[in-house]
Design brief:
This protein is α/β, with parallel strands linked by helices and 769 residues long. The protein has 4 domains: 82 residues, Peptidase S8 propeptide/proteinase inhibitor I9 (Alpha-Beta Plaits); 352 residues, 3-Layer(aba) Sandwich (Rossmann fold), CATH 3.40.50.200; 133 residues, Glucose Oxidase, domain 1; 112 residues, Immunoglobulin-like, CATH 2.60.40. It contains 20 helices and 36 strands. The strands form 9 sheets. A 7-stranded parallel beta sheet has the order 6-9-5-10-11-12-21, with helices on both faces. The radius of gyration is 30 Å and the shape is globular. The N and C termini lie far apart (105 Å).
C-alpha cells in the first residue's frame, strides 16, 4: 500500500511539473521588415514559415504543425504575419534581425450601422449620454415612406410621445394608424401633384406612407433607428444596428414615389415640408433634390427650408450624386445644411489564395457563404480579348467550372466582364479594376475585385504557371480600420455653389458609402446569378445616406442646446468638423492620392462630440437671410415667393452673411490685376464659459494673405458677441488649376481659446474664373 502511494505521489509530482512547464499559446501579430526577406524565398509566406521553423521549439515539430500555427501572411495592410506563439517563442522571434514590432491580438465587438462608432459616439461619454440619445427630438424625414414593421422602429425603452407633437399617422389600405408608436410618431403621404401629371400611384407603389422602394426606410433608420441586435447583410457587417440619434422620434412624409424615375412632384415636396413644419418637427432631412439647380425663388426645397429655418427647424439636405464635377452641388441655399458623402474605414472583401500560396484580399459583396477550393485558374494573356473578358470572347469549353481572371481594358468594364464570365459558365471570377463604382448587387457570381496595383502577382502566376490553380476563395469578410478614411466619395457633388457661389458649399461631409440600415423585405438588394435575394437590412450609398447622419447629429445638439437657433446648430457642426483622415492627412478624394479641397468637403467631416461644445458660433436670424436674398436682385414677386411675406426690409448696410465659412469669387475680366482682395465682416457669439479669450491663427499657402482684425477676441460672459474682419489678398502664385477655367486657393482660420479646449475652424477659399 505504501509503495502504491509513493508511486502515485511521484506520478502526481510529474504531472504538476509537466503542467507548469508547458507554456500557453497566444496569437500575436508580427511586423517584419520585408526588405530583409532573403531572395531564396519566392513569397513572404515561405519566408514566414521558415522563420517560425527556425525557432528552437520547432525543431521537434512537423512542418504541417508550423503551417497550422501561421494564421495569416500580410502583404498589403502591413508587412508581416500572425501566428500562435508561446511567450518564449515570441521573445526569441523578437531577436530576429527582420523583426520590427509585435503585439497580442485584440478582439473587437461586432458592429452593423457602423457609422455611430466611426463618428466617435459612445454610451459612456460625449454627446450620446449628454443628449439622452436625442430623446424627445423629432426628426422629419421626407422620402419614399417607411416600413413600420422593421425592428428599427420598435419603441422599446422610449418615453411617451412629446405633448407638443401635432402630427398624425394616416389610416390607409396598406398602412394602419396602429403601426405608429412612440418611435414612429407620424406618417403622411403626398401625391396630388404626381397624380395631376397623369400617373396612377397604385400602378407602381403603395398609396400610403408605406415604403415600396426601401430608400425612406433606410434613411429613417440611419437617422433614428432603435437598437436591433443580430443584424447583417448576407454575412457582412454582423452586429447591432442603431441610428445616430437612437432615441429620437421619426415622422415620415412620403413625397417620393417608386415609378421608374422615382418621381417626386415639387408640389408634393413643398406640401410635405409644410406639413412637417405644422406638425412640429425639430429637424428635417431631405435626401432628394431637383435638377438642375434653380434660382432659390423657383426651388421648392429652398423656399420650404427657409420657412422651416425661420421656425427654428434645421434642414439637412443631400448635396447630390453628380460626381467630381465642380458647380454640381444641389440644395445649396445658405439656410440649408448641405451634406456631401464620405467613406468610412469599414470594407467588405473576399480572400484569394493561389496555388503557390500567395494570398490577398479583394473587394467583394458576394452574398453567399461559398467556399471555393482547388479549381483551375484561367487567364489567356496571349489573347487580349480573352484576357480582358470582352463580350462573347470566352469559350464555354475553356472556362466552364474554372476561376477566370479578367484584366483591365478600356473597351470594357467590370460589370460587362461579370456578365461575360457568368455567360461562359465559369465557377468564379477575379477582376482587376477600381472598386469605386461597385454596388452591393454588382458581384452576383463568386468573385472579387483586385486593385491594379495589387494584381501583378496574380497575373504573373496565372500567365507563367502551367496548370495554375486557385487554392481557395472565401467570402463575407468584414474589415475595419481601412486607411485612409474618410475620403470624399467619387459620386458626391462638388462646389462652388452654382446659384450663389459667394456661399461655400457643401457645408460638411458625413458617411455616405456602404451604409447599412433597415430595408423593405420585398425589394431585392443582392443577386446570385439569376436569383434575386432580399434582406431586411441593406447596404446603400449616396449623399442620400449622408444627409440623415447630419440631421441626427443636429438632433443630438438640439437636445443639449434647446434654445439654439438652427443657424447656431449648423455653425457648431461646421466649425468643429474635421479636415483630417485617420492618417492625419487632409481628406482625399476617393480613388486618388490627391488631397480634397473645401469645394469637395466644405468645412470638413462631421464630428458629433465636438459639435456639442463648439465654444463660439456664427449665428444668423431670419433678417440676415432676408438681407442676403436682397442682394440677389430678385423682383418683388420673386422676393415674396421666397419670403412668404408681403413686406420686408433690406438692411444692406449690415454687411455680408454671417456664415461659418469664407469664399471669395473673382472674375478675372472684372478684376484683371493681382492681388485680388476682399474683406469679410463676421460676428462670433460665445456659447462657452464667460471671461473667454480667443486668439486667431491662419493657415494659408504662399501667395495668399489673410489679416484678422482684431487678432484676438475677449468675451466677458456667455452669449457675448464680438465683431472681426477678415481681409483676404490672393496673388496668382497661390492659385492652382481647377475645372472649367476656374482656379482656386484655400486655407483655414482657427480661433482657439487660452486652454486650447475649443478650436473654431473655418475654411477660406478664393476662386478666380
Amino acid at each position: 500500500m505504501g509503495s502504491f502511494l509513493l508511486l502515485l505521489n511521484l506520478l502526481c509530482f510529474t504531472c504538476l511539473n509537466f503542467t507548469w512547464a508547458v507554456e500557453e499559446h497566444k496569437t500575436y501579430i508580427i511586423h517584419m521588415d520585408h526588405s530583409k526577406r532573403p531572395t531564396s524565398f519566392s513569397t513572404h509566406e515561405e519566408w514566414h514559415l521558415s522563420t517560425l521553423a527556425s525557432l528552437s521549439s520547432s525543431s521537434s515539430l512537423p512542418s504541417s504543425a508550423m503551417e497550422d500555427r501561421l494564421l495569416y501572411t500580410y502583404t498589403h495592410a502591413m508587412h508581416g504575419f500572425s501566428a500562435r506563439l508561446t511567450f518564449s517563442e515570441l521573445a526569441e522571434l523578437e531577436n530576429h534581425p527582420a523583426h520590427v514590432a509585435s503585439y497580442p491580438d485584440s478582439y473587437g465587438q461586432l458592429l452593423t450601422t457602423y457609422t455611430p462608432k466611426f463618428l466617435g459616439l459612445s454610451k459612456t461619454s460625449g454627446i450620446w449620454p449628454e443628449s439622452s440619445y436625442g430623446s424627445d427630438i423629432i426628426i422629419g424625414i421626407l422620402d419614399t415612406g417607411i416600413w413600420p414593421e422593421s425592428k428599427s422602429f420598435d419603441d422599446h425603452g422610449l418615453s411617451p410621445v412629446p405633448d407638443r407633437w401635432k402630427g398624425r399617422c394616416e389610416n390607409r389600405t396598406t398602412f394602419s394608424m396602429s403601426l405608429c408608436n412612440r418611435k414612429l410618431i407620424g406618417a403622411r403621404s403626398f401625391s396630388k401633384g404626381l397624380r395631376a401629371s397623369g400617373l396612377h400611384i397604385e400602378d407602381f407603389d403603395y398609396d400610403s406612407p408605406r415604403d415600396f422602394d426601401g430608400h425612406g426606410t433606410h434613411t429613417s433608420s440611419t437617422a433614428a433607428g432603435n437598437y436591433v441586435h443580430n443584424v447583417e447583410y448576407f454575412g457582412y457587417a454582423k452586429g447591432s444596428a442603431k441610428g445616430i440619434a437612437p432615441a429620437a422620434r421619426v415622422a415620415i412624409y412620403k413625397v417620393v414615389w417608386s415609378s421608374d424615375d422615382d418621381s417626386s412632384a415639387a408640389t408634393d415636396v413643398l406640401a410635405g415640408i409644410d406639413q412637417a413644419i405644422a406638425d412640429g418637427v425639430d429637424v428635417m432631412s431631405l435626401s432628394l433634390a431637383f435638377k438642375p439647380a434653380s434660382p432659390y425663388h423657383e426651388d421648392v426645397i429652398a423656399i420650404g427650408a427657409l420657412s422651416a429655418v425661420r421656425r427654428g427647424i434645421l434642414v439637412s439636405c443631400s448635396a447630390g450624386n453628380s460626381g467630381s464635377s465642380w458647380y454640381s452641388v444641389l440644395n445649396g441655399a445658405p439656410w440649408i445644411m448641405t451634406v456631401g458623402a464620405g467613406t468610412t474605414d469599414r470594407s467588405f472583401s473576399a480572400s484569394l489564395t493561389l496555388g503557390n500560396g500567395f494570398m490577398l484580399h479583394g473587394t467583394s459583396y458576394f452574398p453567399l457563404s461559398i467556399y471555393i477550393a482547388d479549381l483551375p485558374l484561367y487567364y489567356d494573356r496571349s489573347n487580349i480579348s480573352k484576357a480582358s473578358c470582352l463580350n462573347s470572347s470566352l469559350e464555354v469549353s475553356q472556362v466552364a467550372g474554372k476561376v477566370v481572371l479578367c484584366d483591365m481594358n478600356n473597351q470594357t468594364n467590370i460589370f460587362n466582364q461579370i456578365d461575360e464570365v457568368n455567360r461562359a459558365g465559369a465557377a468564379a471570377g477575379i477582376f482587376v479594376g477600381h472598386t469605386m463604382l461597385l454596388e452591393p448587387d454588382s458581384l452576383y457570381i463568386p468573385s472579387l475585385v483586385v486593385q491594379p496595383s495589387e494584381a501583378d502577382r496574380v497575373k504573373q502566376y496565372a500567365s507563367q504557371t502551367i496548370n495554375a490553380t486557385v487554392k481557395e476563395m472565401t467570402f463575407q469578410i468584414t474589415k475595419h480600420n481601412a486607411k485612409p478614411a474618410p475620403q470624399v466619395t467619387y459620386f458626391s457633388s462638388r462646389g462652388p455653389n452654382p446659384i450663389s457661389p459667394m456661399v461655400l458649399k457643401p457645408d460638411v461631409l458625413a458617411p455616405g458609402k456602404d451604409v447599412l440600415a433597415a430595408w423593405v423585405p420585398h425589394n431585392p438588394t443582392a443577386k446570385y446569378r439569376s436569383d434575386k435575394l432580399v434582406s431586411t437590412y441593406a447596404l446603400d450609398s449616396g449623399t442620400s445616406m449622408s444627409s440623415p447622419h447630419v440631421a441626427a447629429v443636429a438632433a443630438l445638439v438640439r437636445s443639449v442646446h434647446q434654445d439654439w437657433s438652427a443657424a447656431a446648430i449648423k455653425s457648431a457642426i461646421m466649425t468643429t468638423a474635421q479636415i483630417y483622415d485617420n492618417r492625419h492627412a487632409i481628406i482625399r478624394n476617393e480613388g486618388t492620392s490627391q488631397p480634397a479641397t473645401p469645394l469637395d468637403f466644405g468645412s470638413g467631416h462631421v464630428d458629433p462630440n465636438r459639435a456639442m461644445d463648439p465654444g463660439l458660433i456664427y449665428d444668423l436670424d431670419f433678417q440676415d437671410y432676408v438681407n442676403f436674398i436682397c442682394t440677389l436682385n430678385y423682383t418683388t414677386k420673386q422676393m415674396m415667393a421666397m419670403l412668404r411675406l408681403r413686406k420686408w426690409e433690406c438692411k444692406l448696410d449690415k454687411g455680408d452673411l454671417n456664415y461659418p465659412s469664407f469664399i471669395a469669387v473673382f472674375n478675372k475680366t472684372d478684376v484683371p490685376s493681382y492681388p485680388k482682395n476682399k474683406t469679410f465682416i463676421r460676428v462670433l457669439t460665445n456659447v462657452g464659459l464667460p471671461d473667454a479669450v480667443y486668439s486667431s491663427a491662419v493657415d494659408v499657402p504662399k501667395g495668399m494673405k489673410v489679416i484678422i482684425t482684431p487678432s484676438s477676441l475677449t468675451f466677458s460672459e456667455r452669449n457675448d458677441k464680438q465683431i472681426f474682419r477678415l481681409h483676404l489678398e490672393v496673388d496668382e502664385e497661390a492659385l492652382s488649376a481647377g475645372q472649367k477655367g476656374t482656379r482656386v486657393a484655400y486655407g483655414y482660420l482657427r480661433w482657439t481659446d487660452e486652454k486650447s479646449e475649443h478650436i473654431v475652424s473655418s475654411p477660406i477659399v478664393a476662386i478666380v474664373h
